[in-house]
Specification:
Number of helices: 6
Strand content: 35-45%
CATH class of the largest domain: Mainly Beta
Shape: elongated
Number of domains: 3
CATH architecture of the largest domain: Beta Barrel
Largest sheet: 6 strands, antiparallel, barrel
CATH topology of the largest domain: Elongation Factor Tu (Ef-tu), domain 3
CATH superfamily of the largest domain: Efflux pump adaptor protein, beta barrel domain
Radius of gyration: 44 Å
Length: 388
C-alpha cells in the first residue's frame, strides 16, 4: 500500500511539472501544437533556418533543424525612430544690473546732509549727500582775495613805465598762481558734495547724518536695471555652438508663468578646467522694471542638434565585437552593428545604418540568427502600422 502511495505522489509531481512546463514554456506550447494538443499562439513570429538541404548537410540534420526552427518563437519587434541630442540647453543663472556702482565720498569729513532715500530713482550728477564744508568755503574765499590782489598788481605794473620787465613778469606769474589756487579751492569745495555717477535706483542708504566718513566708506549703492544681465554656465560641448547675439529665454520663480526673451551678450574665452563648463552672459530688457539684480533664472537655449537612430533599449545586444541590433528586412534577420550615443530610460540613440521605420527585434532575441527567415503571423499590416 505504501508503494502505491509513493507511485501516486510521484505521478502527481511529474504531472504538475509537465503542466507548469506546458503553461510557461513557449517551446512546450509549440511541441504540444505540433502533436495536436494545443494551438499556435496568435501573433507569433516563426524563425526558420533557411537553406535546409544545402550541400554538405545531412538530411537528418536538416530535418531536425527544420523541426526546431519550424516551431514558432514569440518575438516582438519595434520600429526605428529618430532622436536628437544637443538640441537644448537648460541652465541656472544669476541676474545682475547692467550697471552697478557703490557710491563713496571723494573726501573725508562729517556727513551734514543726506538728500536721497532707499529705493529712490536718481539721475547722473544728482547730489545724494553733503559733507561739512566750512573750511573749504574759507579756503575758496581766501583764494578769491589773493586772485583779485594779483590781478590788480599785474594790471598796475603793465601801465607803469618805471617798472622793470622782470617785475611785470613776476606779477603775471603771481596772477596765474592765484587762479590755480582758486581752482583748487573750488574743487575741494565741490568734492564735499557726494553725487550719483550713473542713473538708476538707490539701494539702502548705509550712512547717517553726523557720521565721520572717509573715501572708503559706503554711502549707497545704485543699480541701473533698465537691462538685466544673466550669467550662467554651459557644458563645454556647447562652447562652439553658442554665439553672441543668439536668442535665449529665461524664467524666474518671482514671475511664475512668464518667459523673458533676450540674447547672448558675451561668451567667455576659456573653459573652466574643474567643472568643464564655459561662462555665458545673456542680456534681457527690463522695461517694466520687473526683474532685479541677484534673482535666479532658468535659462533655455535651442539648437539644431544632431539626429541619430533611436531604438528600444531591449533591442541593443552585445557580443565580443560590441553592441548590435537585429534588423528585419524582407522577412530576413540580419545583425547591424551600432555605436551608442546616448542612453535614455525609454530609448537608446545609436549611430548605425538604420533608417526610420525599419523593424528591429526587441524580444525573443535568443532564437534569432543571421540570415534567418522571419515569418510574421497575425500582426497588423505594414500600412496599418504606418497609419497609427
Amino acid at each position: 500500500m505504501r508503494v502505491w502511495k509513493q507511485v501516486g505522489v510521484s505521478v502527481a509531481v511529474v504531472g504538475a511539472g509537465l503542466c507548469l512546463w506546458g503553461f510557461y514554456s513557449p517551446e512546450a506550447r509549440n511541441v504540444l501544437a505540433a502533436i495536436g494538443l494545443g494551438k499556435m499562439p496568435a501573433g507569433a513570429i516563426e524563425v526558420a533556418a533557411s537553406g535546409a538541404g544545402t550541400s554538405g548537410t545531412p538530411a537528418g540534420q536538416n530535418a531536425g533543424g527544420a523541426r526546431r526552427n519550424g516551431n514558432a518563437t514569440l518575438v516582438v519587434m519595434a520600429t526605428v525612430k529618430k532622436g536628437t541630442v544637443n538640441d537644448r540647453l537648460n541652465a541656472i543663472g544669476n541676474g545682475e544690473a547692467i550697471q552697478s556702482v557703490v557710491v563713496m565720498p571723494q573726501a573725508s569729513g562729517t556727513l551734514s546732509e543726506i538728500r536721497t532715500s532707499s529705493g529712490a530713482r536718481v539721475v547722473k550728477g544728482q547730489v545724494l549727500a553733503r559733507l561739512d564744508d566750512e573750511e573749504q568755503v574759507i579756503e575758496r574765499d581766501k583764494a578769491q582775495v589773493t586772485l583779485r590782489s594779483a590781478v590788480e598788481k599785474s594790471n598796475s605794473y603793465k601801465n607803469l613805465k618805471s617798472v622793470s620787465r622782470l617785475d611785470v613778469l613776476d606779477a603775471q606769474i603771481a596772477e596765474e598762481a592765484a587762479k590755480l589756487a582758486l581752482s583748487t579751492a573750488e574743487l575741494n569745495l565741490k568734492r564735499r558734495d557726494i553725487v550719483a555717477p550713473i542713473e538708476g535706483v538707490a539701494g539702502i542708504v548705509a550712512a547717517n547724518i553726523g557720521d565721520n566718513v572717509t573715501t572708503q566708506s559706503t554711502i549707497v549703492s545704485i543699480d541701473d536695471r533698465s537691462e538685466i544681465l544673466v550669467n550662467f554656465w554651459a557644458p563645454e560641448r556647447f562652447a562652439t555652438a553658442i554665439k553672441v547675439g543668439m536668442p535665449v529665454e529665461a524664467t524666474s520663480i518671482s514671475r511664475p508663468g512668464e518667459t523673458f526673451k533676450g540674447e547672448i551678450e558675451a561668451v567667455d574665452n576659456r573653459v573652466d578646467e574643474a567643472s568643464r563648463t564655459i561662462r555665458i552672459r545673456a542680456k534681457f530688457g527690463n522695461e517694466k522694471d520687473e526683474l532685479r539684480a541677484g534673482m535666479s533664472f532658468g535659462v533655455t537655449m535651442r539648437f539644431a542638434g544632431e539626429t541619430y537612430a533611436s531604438v528600444d533599449p531591449l533591442a541593443v545586444q552585445w557580443d565580443a565585437e560590441g553592441s548590435y541590433v537585429w534588423r528585419v528586412t524582407d522577412n530576413k534577420s540580419n545583425k547591424v552593428r551600432v555605436q551608442i550615443v546616448q542612453r535614455n530610460p525609454d530609448a537608446v540613440l545609436v549611430k548605425a545604418e538604420l533608417a526610420e521605420g525599419e523593424p528591429v527585434v526587441i524580444e525573443g532575441l535568443q532564437r534569432v540568427r543571421e540570415g534567418g527567415t522571419v515569418r510574421v503571423g497575425n500582426q497588423p499590416k505594414p500600412e496599418e502600422v504606418a497609419s497609427q
